[in-house]
Amino acid sequence: MGENKLLSSMKKFRFKDHSLGMAFLILVVIATILGWPNFLKIRNLTNILRQISYTGIIGLGMTLVIISGGIDLSVGSMTAFVGGIAIYFLNLFGPESIWGIVLTFLFALVLGSLCGALNGLLVAKFKMAPFIVTLGTMSIFRSLIQYFSNAGTILSENMDYGKLGSGVLLGLPIPVWCFFIVGILLHIILNHTSFGRYLCATGSNEQVAKYSAINIIIVKWLPYIITGFTVGMTAVMWSSRLNCINPSDGAGYEMDAIAAVVIGGTLMSGGKGSVIGTMMGAVMLGIINNMLVMGGVSAFLQQAVKGFVIIVAVLLQYNNGNK
Amino acid sequence: MDEPKILLSLEGIVKEFSSVRVLDRVSFNIREGEIMGLIGENGAGKSTLMKILSGIYQKTEGTIRMDGQLTNIPDYITAKRLGIGIVPQEFNLINYLTVFENIFLGNEIHKGLLLDKSKMREQAKAQLEILKMPLDVNKYISELSVAEKQMVEIAKAMILDTRVLIFDEPTTTLTPVEVRTLFSLMRKLKEKKVTMLFVSHKLQEVMNICDRVTVLRDGKLVSVDEVANLDANILAKKMVGRDFSQVFPPKKDRRAEEYVLEVENLSSGNMVKDVSFSLHRGEILGFAGLVGSGRTETMEAVMGLRKLESGEIRIKGKPVRIRNAKDAVSHGLGYISEDRQGKGIVMNYDIIKNISLISLKDKYMKGFLIDKKAETAASDHYIDEFNIVAASAKSELRFFSGGNQQKVYLARWMDTDPEILILDEPTRGIDINAKREIYEFIHRLSEARISCIIISSEMEEIIGMCNRAYVMREGKIASCLNEDQITEENIVFNATGIKKGVEKDG
Predict the structure, then answer these.
(1) Do A272 and B348 touch (CB under 8 A)?
(2) Least confident span in A71-85, A109-123, A126-140, A261-275
(3) What angle do CA A29, A30, A33 make, to 5 degrees?
(4) Is residue A277 part of a domain?
């Protein structure tokens, strides 16, 4: 009886439905074999997680934006902008002020959300193309922070700020905790709240959503605000890790975030996606990078490999969709 | 008169789509230089037959002779070479190209490797002059009106030496004035000995323009007659072939005195001009008219989906302000759009998520989270009630038939507990059994004292279902017909403003 059940559930198991999980497992096995024994060392694994956590957190918000049918190219320069302004804000407090750190964290989250709200306003309310809007704000954020800093590094004067980004809690770095917590939160929002339901419906067909009494302006606006929030979080994590912000920081973050989303199986055309998938996508990117580094592949080639992986992921999406 | 020459001869044409027979041994002749009408209900096989003639579909059996010669039409290009052109229902024009570029699309004239634009421009101009079309060849398609786009399609079909020109439901999107222009153009083409096939389901037009008419029903040939020997009633009976009473449940008047919805002097854009109407509790109210007469736009304005310029809406006697669909829902209004796939269902959502889409926040929340158990239970109830056929409640809607999609769409609106349900072309593109189920369902609604508005371009639907009917023409209410006045003649007259038989040429 029990055996039969197992058999029938094995028969029902379709590789197509679990392709991401399978790819993840295969990648881990390959990395384990090729990288034996260094890959499986705790230190290496937490390192991978830390490395991917910065763009990974942004990728979580980006997932919602892409499901809504949009895209956010401004996240990289927004990270530098929010991080830089946050450090100016932090420096208003004394060098030993713990409150300053707490308030700066909150300040960065609010400022990031506001920046995202600006993108969302233009996209949702004024019905502009997301690609164009965020291409514009990408340039604006970068330019502003370079102007404010005179293109120089913005240093934190707080003695304890650095502990936030480099801190470790129960064996995991704090940015990794942020990545997991935000991931689980957004997963619940996407799958178990009315907003998540409306989001997928709107991304799938905006007209249907409008005719179904859904307020599509708010539904399309919120993902950008949430992405801004995740950018604020990354900005704090990154700047506190280095105890400073360079106005050129965060360049190419949009690329990594979008890559994680696409590898995670979210449709670029919108309407369907998975936050858990994005988390796996981000980790997979991290593992591939780790393998390349350990294998001594030139750093210049690593971006090429990333680009290749994205193209393959989208190709698989298309083939699945056509069946 | 001499025996007319037969240009095209169809013998035993059969077409099957995955073993479903949509054309069953259809045979008839088309004479040189005549205008042959081809009429039938939706799904009678008119379009399929025309697509076989123009090489888009391949016949399963049968033979086609042209000038007495056995002819094969394996593709669109061959059809064109044989001189068979088609003016399709949905235009195949490229918006970002000019008129002459579209006319020569696929038949470009070259000068070496490059396009000879000046020559094409000249020839297109000449062609339009011959057809007496007042069009600028350098205009972009996107700047043209629907009627002008149709002219371009005709010119495009005529640029090769076309002997047979097929019009597939050409008048659906035209205003009455534009229809008259089209007809006078067709008469000019006739003088030039062009043979024409005119596909339509509008009796009046066929009687007006055609020499002979072929009737198709359920894929079979019913008759070929000279128009001179026919009247509209005989033609209608041939086309429908059954009594309406078999499809529609017996009519009952369940109207209460009180009005649930009163609309006064509603205006919105140029499609809704000063529209007033009222709806009794428990009434089944019809909205008839031509496509594009403003019926859909009126209801969308009532639902808050279009901006109102003026007008008052009263629900149960109280004036209300409806700014969006959400306000409309909260006042007990529901609207099933004619565009099921574009504005109705979410194709990649399953039954459960589709049904709860509007009522989600009111019915299925536990705090911030969705109560998925309650949601599933509700959808099981509707699957049962509406007899929705699906592998499981978790199947995505894109795999469903039109009828089942429509039932899910209905279930979504029923879950909002509406008091007034507006159904826009509720049976478009669904099979006869699902149609009957939907008609019965509308009757059950009226029994439950829910008021229904049915917008329909199928006259028999208005005649067979409604207690009262408004007819719209060019954005205005042309008249309100009481039950004993709802006849085909009254609807046609009010919808077109043209009395049968007395239509003048443009």
Answers:
(1) yes
(2) A261-275
(3) 85
(4) yes
Name the residue range of residue B237's domain.
6-245
> In which domain, by residue range, is A282 found?
42-290+302-310
Share of chain B above pLDDT 90, in %: 52
Q: What does the pLDDT look like over A236-289, one tens digit per residue?
A: 999 999 999 999 999 999 999 999 999 999 998 999 999 999 999 999 999 999
User: Would you call A212 and B325 a contact, using CB atoms and an 8 Å cutoff?
Assistant: yes
Residue type, A112: G
- Say which residue, B146 or B412, is predicted with more confidence: B412
Residue B257: inside a domain: no
Chain B residue nearest residue A272, CA to CA: B348
| Number of domains chain A is built from | 1
Q: The domain spanning residue A193 has which CATH number? A: 1.10.3470
The CATH number of residue B175's host domain is 3.40.50.300
Inter-chain CB proximity B357 and A201 less than 8 Å: yes
Whether A272 and chain B come into contact, CB under 8 Å, resolves to yes
Domain assignment of residue A53, yes or no? yes
In order of B73, B83, B107, B153, B157, the CA distances from B77 in angstroms are 9, 10, 10, 16, 12
B266 within a domain of the structure (yes/no): no
Place of tokens 């009247």: B231
Contact (Cβ atoms closer than 8 angstroms) between residue A130 and residue A72: yes
pLDDT digits (tens, 9 = 90+) for B37-93: 998 876 678 888 998 998 888 999 999 999 989 998 998 888 988 999 888 877 888
Q: How far is A202 from chain B (nearest CA, A)?
A: 9
Contact with chain B for residue A211, Cβ under 8 A: yes
Position B31 in a domain? yes
Q: Is A271 on the interface with B (CB under 8 A)?
A: yes
Q: How far apart (Å, rounded) are the C-alpha atoms in residues B66 and A216?
A: 56
Is the Cβ pair B329, A213 closer than 8 Å?
yes
Rounded distance, CA A74 to CA A116, Å? 9
B361 Cβ under 8 Å from any chain A Cβ: yes
Q: Does B87 fall in a domain?
A: yes
> Which residues in chain A have their CB less than 8 angstroms from residue B344's CB?
208, 211
How many domains, in total, are found in chain B?
A: 1
Read off the pLDDT band of B506 (50, 70, 90): very low
Residues of B in contact with A209 (CB under 8 A): 346
